[in-house]
Amino acid sequence: MFLTDCWYAAGFLDEFGRELRGRTFLGEPVVLFRTEAGELVALEDRCAHRRLPLSVGRLKGDTIECSYHGLVYNRSGACIKVPGQNDVPRSAQLRRYPVADMYGYSWIWMGDPTRADTRTIPDYSRLSLPGLGRHRITLHVEGNYQLIVDNLLDLSHLPYVHGTTTGNPPVSESASVKTERHGDTVQVKRWAENIEPAATFVQFGGYRGKVDIWQISQFQPPCYVRVSYGSGPAGSGIPQGDAIWEPGHWGFQVFHGITPESETTTHQFRYILHEKGNADAATIAEFYRQNDQIINEDRIIFAIQQKALYTTGDGASAADLKTSAIIRADGGLIQARSIISGMLQGDRAAAATKLRA
């Protein structure tokens, strides 16, 4: 169902501290906390005795005490105390997950811990650049994670879902679209020239006439997506790459941490990154409000879409769109789904070989 030998966003750095926080990733309950020295720890969220979640227990120093029968676990997941007896059952051992703090996120590795390599965490280093504005939001999405990836790789939906902010008809009707795949990376570039700017670009880009716009969505498995939005006065031309802050341009970037919770629910941790310019605090606050409106409009769509997948009567699974009509704008998401499907098949084949051995 899910790719396991990958890093996933567990949340934002400061979400985890000296309190026990329970979250479910890829169907597995996990308890997270920081030690007194600030080290992030992630353990299986269940007591080995009677399965009570340890996230409702008590943090004592760098150990967790179960709030049911008082068993105590250290940060490696080993039970070190059973009240009323001197010996500890060998089976009283919890799984510990590799974790890392990078680029404003805390990341978790849900697969084979010996294969965890922080060099494979997506390059979100731009979030660490000084002097830029940042805004973030945490969402719980009632939909499969692939529906979110689909959405971010096909921005033709902007005029219809986000018509009061970043969307206007030329984004869908008049745009040129180019999809490229390089290994396991998919990039979709959508651009339109000499068009009326959408409301958000008028308000924050300061445009009074027509513009050239470009939007670049980049996907890496399992579900890392970065979207760049750029614009310039009509005639300024469309830049190569995902340049958005050249002189005379206005734009912003969106970094998504998308982590499956279950087959039909997903955690979404999103950062907005932008130049502050000369905007005052009230203007920036309104820009953030609009971005939060946009992602919540998508969240509503995902929930309705997920429900429909189970009620169409065509046997569709959580995110199975095999019976759906295909349109030109689907190029990027088809490539992304192909990559995920191929990697899942590889994982299944490897698991079958291991069982036979």
Q: Choose one word for the global shape.
A: globular
SSE pattern: EEEEEEEEEEEHHHEEHEEEEHH
* Mean pLDDT over the full residue set: 91
CATH class of the largest domain: Alpha Beta
Helix content: 10-25%
The second-level CATH architecture of the largest domain is Alpha-Beta Complex
Question: Helices and strands in order, then pairings?
Answer:
Elements (H helix, E strand, L loop, with lengths): L6 E6 L8 E5 L2 E7 L5 E5 L13 E3 L2 E3 L6 E2 L5 E3 L17 E4 L2 E5 L22 E10 L3 H9 L4 H4 L8 H4 L2 E7 L2 E11 L3 H7 L5 E10 L3 E10 L16 E11 L5 E10 L5 H29 L21 H26 L1
Antiparallel strand pairs: 1-10, 2-3, 3-4, 5-6, 6-7, 7-8, 9-10, 11-17, 12-13, 13-14, 14-15, 15-16, 16-17
Q: Descriptors for this entry?
A:
357 residues; alpha+beta; Rieske Iron-sulfur Protein; Naphthalene 1,2-dioxygenase Alpha Subunit, Chain A, domain 1; four-stranded antiparallel sheet; 22% helix; globular
What's a quick, concise take on this entry?
The chain contains six helices and 17 strands. It has helices at residues 145-153, 158-161, 170-173, 199-205, 281-309, 331-356; strands at 7-12, 21-25, 28-34, 40-44, 58-60, 63-65, 72-73, 79-81, 99-102, 105-109, 132-141, 176-182, 185-195, 211-220, 224-233, 250-260, 266-275.
